[in-house]
Structure formats: structure tokens, C-alpha cells
Design a protein that fits this description.
Elements: H1 4-17, E1 20-22, E2 25-27, H2 38-44, H3 53-60, H4 65-91, H5 95-98, H6 101-118, H7 126-142, H8 146-156, H9 163-194, E3 213-214, E4 217-222, H10 223-242, E5 251-255, E6 260-264, H11 265-287, E7 297-303, E8 307-314, H12 336-343, H13 396-406, E9 410-416, E10 420-428
Parallel strand pairs: 5-7
Antiparallel strand pairs: 1-2, 3-4, 4-6, 7-8, 8-10, 9-10
Helix pairs in contact: 2-4, 4-6, 4-9, 6-7, 6-8, 7-9, 8-12, 9-13, 10-11, 11-13
């Protein structure tokens, strides 16, 4: 038997030579290359500057060249700062986790983006801004693989970290990712507006056709319209998955149906869409062999002075006991091996888990999309994922909660075993709450 020191050296050699085994798979060591820490340390010292929906709309109100350039320079400093904090978070992970090929892939994407974005000089002209927008667009496109790679990495490494540490890490990275895409896509939208034909004083079409939007912020988001649109899409997906003969539940709305509030429309569409999708599928599966028509999915909209609360209630039998304890976990659960296999079938996803596949027939009557080189293909996140119901990824609810909490809201679920589920989505309606960013990364160099 080898002495203790020899055993430790042997272990290190085996780790570096590729002996990582997870779910019956062996993966080669993909440790990121060494880089000097001085530059990253400098950026980690900076604090991210959170912004509210109200501040996002300020830049777009009476958009001028100076305001556009101010927005560009805010994004120019914020993106590398927020990336630096997440790179430092990844550096503090156990070495064996970072060498996972999926995690290493994400780390390298982040470091490449950090190196590119930190080198951008002060933006002084509209031409400088247009060149910067091209860099942002390319970066957003390159990062479409981040979510599936992160998810696969977390699932493969779930035995190497405590579940609460894994979930905290994922929550921080995803929340930061949302924040970067929000400010980047908002600036791209403002740039698009600045170059639009109706923006100029002598324009033949002085009225902006998307006047209710300031960038990506929808000033009069109507909960009733979003629920109706998302329910139609969820029912369409269910009918395609279960067959035209399946009995689909109705979606009944009641409450304050005229409630409006400023919000990023795609965020709300994603959360409500995931909740309705889960409810409709659960009801169809429970009532499939019963003679009577399935019970409806009930949606109640409640408008309070500072919040709008959306309750979605179904009679789909509740959440199974084996899933309930890990309902909000990204990597832990009895079906994680199935989720891992399904993620292999989803190569790219935007920040809201949408596949890069346009809807065959657009059902959205809320916003018209404008396609331009300045906006990434997935810049609009208004359509729900078209993955079939059987392709379960295990991230719908955790991601929905991250989105809900991002603008100081909340998402809670109450399951009644054998009966159904009540989901409560709370939204801040005043638009004055800052984005909820994670605490800064540790300053300890790694």
C-alpha cells in the first residue's frame, strides 16, 4: 500500500490525467488555462450599479444622442464588471467542478467576453456606439449555449458539491446573466429606436408604432392579455403532444382584468407560460381516463397599490412527493439523469430557456418584432419554448423564480397532494425597484 504522500500525489495525477466519472460517463480534464489575476482583481473591486425599470425607461424617453451615449457607456462599464464577479465566483468552485467540460466551456466563454468588453474605449460618437452594438450582439449570440452547459455541468457534478451550494451558485450566475442581457438588449433596443425612421424630427411617420415600449420595457403590460396569450400557446403545445382528441382544460380568468404595470414583457410571458404549461399538462394527465371534462385552470389577478398578484390554480393532482423537496433545485432530484439526457437535445437556449426556433404562426398581438442587424436573433423573448411536453428539463420553476425575484417580486407554490397546485406570482407594479443582484464576489485571489 502506498504511503499517504504518495497516495495524494497519485490522486492529483489521476485528476489531472482525466478520471472524472459521473452518471457512468468519463470526462477529460478541461481545466481552464492559468491567467494572471491582477486584471480580474481590478474589476472585481468595482461594485455593480443596479438599475430599475423606471431608470431603464428614462434613457429612452425623448431619446437624444447624449442619452444614447450615456446608456452605451453605462453598459460598457457594467458588462465587464458583472462578468468579473461571476468569473471570480467560478474560480472559487472546487477544482474538480471547474474541470468539468461543460463548466469549463462556460468559464471560457465568460473570460473571452470579459477580455473583449473590458477593452472597449469610451463611446463618444454614434458610430462608436454602432460598432459597440455589433460586439454586444456577437457576444449575446455566443452565450446561447451557457444555460444548457451550466445545467449539464451542475447535474454531472451534483455529488461534488452540497445541494445548497450548487443552487446558490446557479441562482447567482443566472440572475447575473439575466441582468447582463437586460441592460445589453435594452441598449440595443434604444439604438434601434434612435436609428428608426420615426425618430427624426422631419420623419414622415412621426408616431412610433411601438410607443408603449421604451426599449424592451413595456409600459402598459396587461396581465390579462399575457395570461390569454400564454394559455393559448400552452394549450396548442398540449394538443400537439397529447393528440387532438385529448380533453384540454379551460383557462378561466377573474379579478382585476384591467391591471397594467411597466415590465419586460418576455419575462412575464416566460413565468406565466411555464406555470400554465405545468398546470395544463398536469390536468390532462390526471383527467385523461375520466369520463367528465377536466376541471378548469383558474387564474385570479389581484391589483394592490404596489403589487399585482397572479394566482394560478389547477386540479392536476398536486406535485409528486419525490419531487416536492427538490422543487426549486437546479441539479438535485430523482429525475436528474433524465434531465441530463434531455439537455443534450437542446443545444442552445436564450436567457429564458427558449430554443432558437421561431413560432410557425405568431400569436402575439402585443408587440411587433423589428429584425435588424443591431438586434440578436433571439433579442425578443416573447415566444415560449416549443420543446415538447415530454422533454422535461427540470429548470422551469427554478428559472421562473429567478425571473420573478429579479425585479423584486416573488413566486410561491402550494401543493395539495391528490388535488392540485396553487401558484402565486407577485409583481412590483411601480417599476421603482432595482434589479436584485447578488452580493459581490470574494476578493480572495485564486
Amino acid at each position: 500500500m502506498l504511503p499517504p504522500v504518495a497516495r495524494r500525489i497519485s490522486t492529483i495525477v489521476r485528476l489531472n490525467d482525466c478520471c472524472f466519472l459521473r452518471h457512468g460517463r468519463r470526462w477529460a480534464s478541461g481545466a481552464p488555462p492559468w491567467r494572471p489575476a491582477a486584471i480580474l482583481d481590478k474589476w472585481v473591486q468595482r461594485e455593480a450599479r443596479p438599475i430599475s425599470l423606471r431608470q431603464l425607461t428614462f434613457f429612452g424617453r425623448t431619446l437624444t444622442e447624449n442619452r444614447l451615449l450615456s446608456s452605451a457607456n453605462y453598459v460598457r462599464t457594467e458588462l465587464p464588471t458583472r462578468l468579473a464577479h461571476r468569473l471570480r465566483d467560478m474560480q472559487t468552485l472546487p477544482y474538480v467542478v471547474v474541470t468539468n467540460p461543460h463548466m469549463s466551456h462556460v468559464y471560457e466563454l465568460y473570460y473571452k467576453a470579459f477580455e473583449t468588453l473590458r477593452r472597449v474605449q469610451e463611446i463618444k460618437t454614434v458610430d462608436d456606439n454602432d460598432r459597440y452594438c455589433k460586439i454586444i450582439t456577437e457576444t449575446l449570440q455566443e452565450h446561447l449555449t451557457v444555460i444548457p452547459k451550466l445545467a449539464m455541468g451542475v447535474i454531472e457534478c451534483q455529488s461534488l458539491m452540497r445541494p445548497e451550494e450548487t443552487d446558490q451558485f446557479m441562482n447567482i450566475l443566472l440572475r447575473s446573466r439575466i441582468s447582463r442581457r437586460v441592460i445589453a438588449e435594452q441598449h440595443l433596443a434604444l439604438t434601434e429606436t434612435f436609428h428608426s425612421p420615426w425618430h427624426f424630427p422631419d420623419a414622415k411617420q412621426p408616431q412610433d408604432p411601438n410607443a408603449d415600449f421604451v426599449g424592451d420595457v413595456f409600459l402598459r403590460c396587461n396581465a390579462k392579455e399575457v395570461v390569454e396569450e400564454c394559455s393559448q400557446r400552452a394549450r396548442t403545445l398540449a394538443r400537439e403532444a397529447f393528440g387532438s382528441a385529448c380533453k384540454l382544460p379551460k383557462v378561466e380568468l377573474q379579478g382585476h382584468l384591467k391591471a397594467t404595470f411597466p415590465y419586460i414583457l418576455s419575462h412575464l410571458q416566460y413565468i406565466v407560460g411555464e406555470l400554465l404549461r405545468n398546470s395544463i399538462e398536469a390536468v390532462v394527465e390526471k383527467w385523461d381516463n375520466l369520463a367528465e371534462h377536466p376541471a378548469p385552470v383558474e387564474v385570479l389577478i389581484c391589483e394592490a397599490p404596489q403589487h399585482v398578484i397572479i394566482r394560478i390554480s389547477d386540479q392536476g393532482g398536486g406535485i409528486p412527493k419525490d419531487i416536492l423537496p427538490n422543487l426549486w433545485s437546479f441539479g438535485k432530484g430523482p429525475r436528474s439523469h433524465i434531465h441530463l439526457e434531455n439537455f443534450v437535445r437542446v443545444p442552445k437556449m436564450a436567457a429564458t430557456m427558449q430554443e432558437l426556433k421561431p413560432s410557425p404562426t405568431s400569436t402575439s398581438g402585443i408587440a411587433a418584432e423589428v429584425n435588424d442587424w443591431r438586434r440578436p436573433v433571439d433579442g425578443s423573448l416573447s415566444s415560449l419554448t416549443y420543446r415538447p411536453p415530454g422533454l422535461r428539463l427540470g429548470m422551469g420553476l427554478p428559472m421562473s423564480r429567478v425571473y420573478a425575484e429579479y425585479w423584486a417580486g416573488s413566486l410561491e407554490l402550494h401543493s395539495l397532494e391528490g388535488y392540485g397546485v396553487d401558484a402565486f406570482l407577485t409583481i412590483s407594479k411601480l417599476g421603482n425597484k432595482n434589479e436584485q443582484l447578488s452580493t459581490r464576489a470574494s476578493m480572495d485571489a485564486v
